[in-house]
Amino acid sequence: MLTACRNKWIGRWLAGLGLFAALPSAAAQIADQVIIYASIPSTPNEVVLRYDRKLNLLSETNVTPYGGSINTETDIAVNREGDYRIAFDALSTTQLLKLDCLGQVVGTTWLGHNPVNVAVDAADGVYALTRIPLLAPGPAYGLDATTGTLWSSMDGPALYTWYPTELAVLSTGALWMADESEEGQPKFQPRFARLDVQSGHVLSTFWIPGPGWPTIDTGVLKLKASADGTMWATLSGQGYELVKTDGSSVLAKFPIDGGFTGGAYHIAVDAQDRVYILGFGYDGKLLRYDPLAPESPETFTAKGIIIGFALGSTGEEAFIVYAPLSAPLTQRLERLNLRTGVGSSAPIDPVYDKGSIAYGDPTGFVFANVIDQNGDSDGDGRTNREETLAGSSPYDPLSRPEGPHVYVSFVSITNALVLTYTDPDGLLDAQGGLDLSTLSVTIGNFGNVFWFLVPFATALDLSADLTQATLTFGALPLPLNKKWQVEATVADLTGATGWDWQVTPPGDL
After folding, report:
1. Alpha carbon distance 252, 181 (integer Å)
2. In the chain, which residues fall in CATH 2.60.40?
3. Residue 269 CA to its chain's centroid (Å)
4. Which of 235, 239, 256, 424 has its CA 20 to 30 A from that of 113?
């Protein structure tokens, strides 16, 4: 949903002309989209790309004229207005770049040092860690979204041997930083420090021995906030571990089958506190760890080397950038439905190179699930946290926790279409059940073919509580490599909608 985002931009333009002070807009400001970084070969130009949930390229913004470079390690944060803050490559410039929800540059903030990470809070405060090239720590900064710099402080960064890189705002509003440090220890050890958001002064610190410590140096690879006010970190040393902490104790800790060469820097935490991380090496595996059963992670497999990933706004999908293992070698962007395991991909235009999803929050999921849990970004009367828990979009007023879902999948070998419908009210509930007149499936350019498909249904499976139904159209096998886009929608009697989209097998546009 880009309507509110577009209205805000038009309002700025009209205000700039002196015609109107502002243009009314819906509550939603963060756009339901994903941000990709890329470069243009044989040129110095590096760009920020915006894609929608059907992998359509929405815009390209050349950020090179603003003095910095971007790469997969370049963090991004988004606030309630849909404005993105990007920490340029830490050896290029001392600017934090600001883009609006349409990808247009709306300003930069000059810091006194080179930024290495950026985070925001629910009150639109902005925080950054910096470095003094090459390895020396620079101050932490606190910024007001409107007026600029509020404070800079060396209190936290001075605790670390080299410049610290990890920064997270928790659901409680607490600001934490982390990295490895020495300070009289026999070996480097992960250290966490909480900073005062008003001054940057250190409020508390906490050490966590990593794998192999105290005989082996251990460190923090990545720090991510969880919805319950805690944080997860990947630790490296003699092997790799995931650790959960509230900043005063270790709440969970277990070894993982992922690591530096597999992208342990890319992790995500979903609404159910499950942690996603890439597998060892370059095996194309995305692992989901449930802390209640960490010994048996679920595995999702991409079709190449995963460069980066992020959870989509609903938390039920992941966006993955991967490099194919065979020609053509153009990097691809995949939307993977985490409920069904079905994924579809599109090439990142060959004009670009080095495409990747940024660290941080390139989809707005972290903002809704963690940072602004009690907000209502889409104005539908349900909190952001209620939405992410239910797998509905906090940025679409028609996608609601009590509303329906539809999922598209395909039977193996025959590729016959399978549609699964769910509704927590009950599929046939008189007040909130499905509105059967809205059942829609579009395939390619054929329009709504749902009722055409009905005679080809070979199975209808209903759950005992009548909240889920699965329709299998087994009498209509689908040919391979047609690259038909299948879009399924349904509404319930309250007007809430469910949506899914996939490409017919093998799923690549």
Report:
1. 22
2. 402-503
3. 9
4. 235
Comparing 24-38, 43-57, 370-384, the range with the smallest average pLDDT is 24-38
pLDDT tens column, 245-259: 999 999 999 998 865
Q: What is the pLDDT of residues 197-214, one digit of tens each?
A: 999 999 999 999 888 888
* CA atoms of 304 and 355, how far apart (whole Å): 14
Domain with CATH 2.40.128 in the chain: 155-264
State the burial class of residue 124 (Cβ atoms within 10 Å of its Cβ: 0-12, 13-18, 19+): middle
Residues pairing with 129 in the sheet: 117
Indicate the average pLDDT of the chain. 88
From the number of C-beta atoms within 10 Å of its C-beta (0-12, 13-18, 19+), residue 139 rates as: buried
Task: Give the helix/strand (H/E) hosting 11.
Answer: helix 3-17
CATH for the 155-264 domain, from 2.40.128, 1.20.120, 1.10.3860, 3.30.500: 2.40.128
Per CATH, which fold does 402-503 belong to? Immunoglobulin-like (2.60.40)
Cross-strand bridge partners of residue 206 = 192
Measure the CA–CA gap between 150 and 142, rounded to whole angstroms. 5
Neighbour count for residue 332 (Cβ, 10 Å): 24
pLDDT at 440 over 90: yes
Q: What's the Rg (C-alpha) of the chain?
A: 23
Judge residue 57's burial from the number of C-beta atoms within 10 Å of its C-beta, 0-12 exposed, 13-18 middle, 19 or more buried. middle
Cα distances (angstroms) measured from residue 503 to each of 98, 345, 368, 408, 456: 34, 8, 28, 9, 20
- Enumerate residues 6+ apart whose C-beta is below 8 A from 430: 493
Positive or negative, the Cα torsion across 145, 118, 163, 37?
negative
Q: How distant is the alpha carbon of residue 273 from its chain centre?
A: 14
The total number of residues shown for the chain amounts to 509
pLDDT in tens, 275-288: 999 876 667 889 99
Question: For residue 457, with 0-12 CB atoms within 10 Å meaning exposed, 13-18 middle and 19 or more buried, which class applies?
Answer: middle
For 30, 42, 196, 235, 286, the CA distances from 193, given in Å and listed in that order, are 30, 42, 10, 16, 30
How many Å apart are CA 71 and CA 74, to the nearest integer? 5
Structure tokens at 487: 């879009």
Tokens of 479: 């040919």
Peptide bond into 291 cis (omega under 30): no
**Count of alpha carbons within 13 Å of 497, Cβ hemisphere only?**
14
User: pTM value?
Assistant: 0.92
Distances (CA, A) of 89 to 42, 67, 112, 133, 140: 19, 10, 15, 11, 16
Cβ-proximal residues to 464 (8 Å cutoff; 6+ apart), any chain: none
Mean pLDDT of 56-70: 86
Tokens for 447, please give them. 């329009």
